From TrEMBL:
UniProt-listed PROSITE patterns: TOPO_IIA (PS52040)
InterPro entries linked to this entry: Gyrase/topoIV_suA_C, Topo_IIA-like_dom_sf, Topo_IIA_A/C_ab, Topo_IIA_A_a_sf, Topo_IIA_dom_A, Type_II_DNA_Topoisomerases
Gene Ontology MF, one: ATP binding
Catalysed reactions listed for this entry: ATP-dependent breakage, passage and rejoining of double-stranded DNA
Gene Ontology biological process terms from the UniProt entry: DNA topological change
Keyword check for Chloroplast: no
Protein name: DNA topoisomerase (ATP-hydrolyzing)
All residue ranges annotated as the Topo IIA-type catalytic domain in the record: 1-365
Entry keyword set: Cell membrane, DNA-binding, Isomerase, Membrane, Topoisomerase
Signal sequence, start to end: none
Entry EC no(s): 5.6.2.2
GO cellular component: cytoplasm; DNA topoisomerase type II (double strand cut, ATP-hydrolyzing) complex
């Protein structure tokens, strides 16, 4: 990055106290701001640039010099940020292209993990890479906190077996736990998944702060390299011309060695005499006077002539380079290719560390929510006055359950803590309660009306266990009814979901699941007469 710093490649400015000088920018052929990233906060602005892969930056730069690439074309070469801690980038490609176009965006990162099978059908999950800027110790503490709070019931323990490399071991509750589901829960709850917010706010031309697209930042680096190349070439040309001037003076000595020696020995002012006699410059005359006698041999003459010829060729090449922009870009391409060889994808320094993963598919939130609940058997009990509770276990002796004075058992149902309980009110609405949300079996429980929006003038008609594949028949006391799928009555809010419309004195009275294989229904009226007909006749 400092190559050419002493060759007038860049400007210098005084340091803050004026005691020394410092370069305004670094001259080296290395895209440092993109390769290593940068972050900082100033007055009213901030920057946050992720690191990118050097080999990909080189490829993109060469492609940009050949053709006018857009953000989509750049994204085919620069696949995304390349963080030193590895991990997996799961951001959709469209979002990456948008970030390249605008200079702003977010990159979603996940830890890299693998399943390690053990004996007796068990396994453990090994995390080998974590997202950029995530502190490992704090991450493990967070996972341990979730385990202790029983918020990740699928996970039994976490161990740190890291040495030089990261090795975080996750131990599931059993071998039946879905590893993908467990990791999805952890990604949502911990820094095993993070977002890097890119804000490519840079100083344009070293003066004006501006959020620049990736293409413009790359082009600015290439333009800077052109300026550096020209300034270094001019600096070298000046050195070459100076040396050629001295060499031409030396060669003049060899052609007129006797006369030169005589002038030096006899003249009062040999410098002026040499300049006058051989039309030399002051620089040449001074160099001749400083020349040692041992340098006046034939071998030295040949060496000086050879050096003169080589420097003459270099002078011509430098003059052509400075005069031709096409030659300058050809030289820059060669330098980028040399950089690519040093940081190529097959080298230890240049290999990509961050894996490019597939964009996330939609997650089954219901299944994920269920996975976050510890699965335990419960018996749900709802009293006649609408008090509900969940007692641990099945096969509960209903006779031993205590109720408030004047209250009694009404609805009893066996379930699991991961189940959803449907409550049907006389107002024709269905309400949904999670099995894990029900009050414990100690005491009398809690009124259902405090948990859902069941009005005071409505009663609880029935309570059912939710089954997405099941159907129910619902009816009002005026004889209206129909078949409804359970998945259609599931309520997402506390206010429930209106399924059966009732008004006035009419109330909902019936809610019964239709068991598999049953195809007829029997209905008895207040006149004590019964009618039987096919279920297919019910809408």
């Amino acid at each position: 990055m400092l190559e050419g710093i002493n060759e007038n490649a860049v400007d210098f400015r005084p340091t803050y106290d004026g005691s020394e000088s410092e370069p305004v920018v670094l001259p080296g052929m290395f895209p440092n701001i993109l390769a290593n990233g940068s972050s900082g906060i100033a007055v009213g602005m901030a920057t946050n640039i992720p690191p990118f892969n050097v080999a990909e930056l080189c490829e993109a730069s060469l492609a940009l010099l050949e053709d006018d690439l857009d953000a989509k074309g750049l994204a085919k070469i620069i696949k995304g940020p390349d963080f030193p801690t590895g991990g997996t980038l799961i951001e959709p490609k469209a979002n990456i292209i948008k970030a390249y176009e605008t200079g702003k965006g977010a990159f979603r990162m996940r830890a890299k993990w693998e399943r390690e099978d053990l004996k007796r059908g068990t396994y453990q999950i090994i995390i080998t890479e974590i997202p950029y800027q995530v502190q490992k110790s704090r991450l493990i503490e967070k996972i341990a906190e979730l385990i202790n709070a029983r918020k990740i019931p699928l996970l039994d323990d976490v161990c740190d077996e890291s040495a030089e490399d990261i090795r975080i071991v996750l131990i599931p509750k059993s071998g039946n736990v879905d590893a993908d589901l467990l990791m999805e829960a952890l990604f949502r709850s911990t820094d095993l998944e993070t977002r890097f917010n890119m804000n490519m706010n840079v100083l344009e031309n070293g003066v004006t702060p501006r959020v620049m697209p990736l293409k413009e930042v790359l082009q600015a680096w290439l333009d800077h390299q052109q300026v550096v190349l020209v300034r270094r070439s001019q600096f070298r040309l000046e050195k070459v011309l100076h040396r050629l001037e001295v060499l031409e003076g030396f060669l003049t000595v060899f052609l007129n060695i006797d006369k030169v020696i005589k002038i030096i020995r006899t003249a009062d002012k040999p410098k002026e005499e040499l300049i006058k006699a051989f039309k030399l410059s002051e620089i040449q005359a001074e160099a001749i006077l400083n020349m040692r006698l041992r340098a006046l041999n034939k071998l030295q003459e040949l060496e000086l002539q050879g050096e003169h010829d080589e420097l003459s060729k270099e002078r011509d090449e430098l003059q052509k380079l400075i005069a031709s922009e096409a030659r300058q870009w050809t030289m820059i391409k060669k330098q980028i290719k040399i950089l690519y060889e040093e940081f190529g994808p097959k080298t230890e320094l240049g290999k990509r560390r961050t894996k490019i993963g597939k964009a996330l598919e939609p997650v089954d939130l219901e299944q994920l929510e269920e996975a976050m609940i510890e699965k335990e058997p419960i018996t749900v009990i709802c009293s006649a006055k609408g008090w509900i509770k969940a007692m641990k276990g099945h096969d509960i002796d209903a006779k031993g359950i205590k109720y408030k004075d004047g209250d009694r058992a009404s609805l009893v149902m066996e379930a699991m803590t991961t189940d959803k309980v449907l409550i049907f009110g006389s107002n024709g609405r269905f309400y949904t309660l999670g099995g894990d949300q029900l009050p414990s079996g100690r005491g009398f429980g809690e009124p259902v009306r405090l948990m859902v929006g069941l009005p005071n003038d409505a009663d609880i008609i029935d309570m059912q266990l939710y089954d997405a594949q099941a159907k129910m028949i619902v009816a009002a006391d005026d004889g209206r009814g129909f078949i409804v799928k359970m998945e259609d009555v599931l309520a997402q809010t506390k206010n429930g979901k209106q399924i059966l419309n009732v008004s006035g004195k009419v109330e909902a009275k019936l809610c019964k699941p239709i068991e598999e294989g049953h195809d007829h229904i029997a209905v008895m009226g207040q006149n004590r007469k019964m009618i039987v007909f096919e279920l297919a006749q019910i809408p």
